[in-house]
Write a structure and sequence with these properties.
Elements lengths: L1 E5 L6 H14 L4 E5 L5 H10 L7 H23 L3 E5 L2 H8 L5 H7 L8 E6 L2 H11 L9 H20 L4 E5 L4 H16 L1
Parallel strand pairs: 1-3, 1-4, 2-3, 4-5
Helix pairs in contact: 1-8, 2-3, 4-7, 6-7
This protein binds adenosine-5'-triphosphate (ATP) and magnesium ion (MG).
């Protein structure tokens, strides 16, 4: 089972994916938690780019993500043989963020050979709330992290989710604009139902 968390910056992806891992392990599952960009040399390059240390156009950035993802696929496929895999961001992030400046069909094409997730959880939180969380909790701000851009990315996510649901993807939208515990309860209920 390949589970993805998606949402805008500060929506709680890292927080919720860690709590879900602990929850599922407590229930006796073997769980592998991973994230994108990964810790590979390409992933590190991407992270520096997101911090604004390197200038890269958005199409090139999407290609870098695809290289990182291509290497990530081998790891994920191996883990899926005997574990539940939870991934903190996947190609939907590239669609929602890079479609601000790159053609969506092109983004979908360059990701077309990667593994289809079994379940995608979209944590929906208004940009204003996310911006506040980021400002309160982080020492550095990334290139997409202003309220107006985050709100545009959130709207992109909503469009993409509609499109991919039509393509037969299982995507669940969860209100993440509440406490960590309440959000987790909703996530856990959704995953339980899916695992049944
Ligand atoms: N439901 C919540 N209510 C209040 N604060 C939260 C909530 N969920 C997460 N936070 C806090 O907001 C900050 C951002 O959360 P988190 O790192 O999980 O977000 P993220 O979606 O992974 O963001 P990023 O894009 O930075 O990776 C963290 O400091 C976290 O403790
Ligand atoms: Mg995170």
């Amino acid at each position: 089972m390949f589970i993805i968390f998606e949402g805008i910056d500060g929506s709680g992806l890292t927080t919720q994916s860690k709590i879900l891992k602990d929850y599922l392990e407590e229930k006796g599952n073997k769980v592998f938690l991973t994230k994108e960009p990964t810790n590979s040399h390409i992933g590190r390059l991407i992270r520096k780019t997101l911090r604004g240390l390197y200038k890269t156009d958005q199409e090139a950035l999407a290609l870098l993500f695809a290289v990182d993802r291509s290497m990530h696929m081998d790891i994920i496929k191996k883990e899926l043989k005997d574990s539940l895999v939870i991934c903190d961001r996947y190609y939907f992030s590239n669609f929602a963020y890079q479609m601000l400046s790159v053609d969506l069909d092109h983004l979908i094409r360059i990701n077309s050979r990667f593994l289809k997730p079994d379940l995608t959880i979209f944590l929906d939180v208004p940009a204003e709330v996310c911006k506040k969380r980021i400002d309160e909790n982080r020492e550095h701000i990334e290139i997409f992290e202003n309220q107006e851009t985050l709100e545009r990315i959130r709207k992109n996510y909503i469009k993409i989710i509609k499109l991919f649901k039509k393509k037969g993807y299982d995507i669940v939208e969860i209100d993440g604009n509440r406490s960590i515990e309440e959000t987790h309860a909703a996530v856990a209920a959704c995953v339980e139902k899916f695992l049944e």
